[in-house]
Amino acid sequence: MTGQPLFEMHDVSVVRAGRTILHVDDFALAEGEHIALLGPNGAGKSTFIQLFTREVMPLHRDNPPVRFRGNPRPTLADVKSCVGVVSATMHDQVRVHLPVIDIVSGGVFGTLGLPRHVQVSDAVIVKARESLARLGIADLSDRDVMTLSTGQVRRVLVARELVHDPEVLVFDEPCTGLDPEGMYHVRDAMRTLASEGCSVVLVTHYPEDIIPAIDRVLLIKEAAIIADGPKKELLNSQEMTNLFGVPLAVDEADGWYSMRGTY
Ligand SMILES: Nc1ncnc2c1ncn2[C@@H]1O[C@H](COP(=O)(O)OP(=O)(O)OP(=O)(O)O)[C@@H](O)[C@H]1O
Predict the structure, then answer these.
(1) What is the maximal distance between C-alpha atoms in the chain?
(2) Nearest CA to ligand 1 atom 11
(3) Same domain as 233, residue 206
(4) Which residues contact 20 (CB under 8 A, 6 or more apart)?
(5) Which of 5, 81, 197, 246 is most exposed, with minimal Cβ within 10 Å?
(6) Are strands 199-204 and 35-38 parallel, antiparallel or unpaired?
């Protein structure tokens, strides 16, 4: 790795209710790098992401265990200025009748719609329309978000993150609850953004979500990183069977992976 990493961890422990829910010996993510975190329910993936986004603090160490661009004490604002997050949890919060353009413009304020009494500038609206166009959903701009399909809302939430030009986009289980059409478009959005130079950090249970541009895979199980390396070495039947604890077979075609149970 050349240059200063975007994010590094050394001897990091997160403890909740007296239990270590994640321990990381060493990890570094380079600027612009794409990565997928794969692991079973409760493994510690979201905790890992929340360390990155400064929503979770590790146990104190004399030598700061987490650094963001070399800074041992980055603020939430430092991280938010360059990292966007799209998650199914955020999706659950979309429960108001608002035009899509307001949802996307709200990304500038970090809110799901536009805050009361806020007059949004023309520049923000232009940026929001551009973000929708980047994802191929410009035609949804004036629709009531509550009338969209689950897959369309998920893409609107990606567009909402794009309004502040993130350098890194975290996709936390982005395809959960989507039908094949929704999955297709969300994976296509990840593909487009990665090809445009945005670093993609993906959290998933399924190799199918891992777009070809992601080469590095982190396997997380029982609060620890059990493997960190190129996907061609880790996305195979043996590693997946060990990771999820049931017999699984992995196939690859044109850089895309698929996984099924063997019985
Ligand atoms: N505040 C908390 N108090 C106690 N336990 C917690 C707390 N937060 C998380 N945990 C536990 O820590 C473990 C790791 O949680 P985490 O959400 O990071 O897992 P995950 O890999 O993202 O799981 P999933 O795939 O189900 O989303 C889980 O067993 C969870 O129950």
Answers:
(1) 59
(2) 21
(3) yes
(4) 13, 14, 223
(5) 197
(6) parallel
Whole-number Å distance, alpha carbon 2 to ligand 1 midpoint, is 33
Q: What DSSP element (H or E) covers 162?
A: helix 150-162
Same-domain check for residues 77 and 104:
no
Q: Which residues line ligand 1 (CB under 6 A)?
A: 16-17, 21, 39, 41-47
pLDDT in tens, 2-58: 578 999 999 999 999 999 999 999 999 999 999 999 999 999 999 999 998 888 888
What spacing in Å lies between the alpha carbon of 143 and ligand 1's midpoint? Answer: 36
Residue 94, phi then psi, degrees to nearest 5: -80, 95
Write down the ipTM of this complex. Answer: 0.96
Q: Tell me the torsion sign for CA atoms 212, 214, 216, 218.
A: negative
Q: What ligand 1 atom has the least distance to the C-alpha of 203?
A: 22
Is residue 175 domain-resident?
A: no
pTM for the predicted model, two decimal places: 0.92
47 and 113 part of one domain: no
Helix (H, G, I), strand (E, B) or coil at 68: strand
Number of domains in the chain: 2
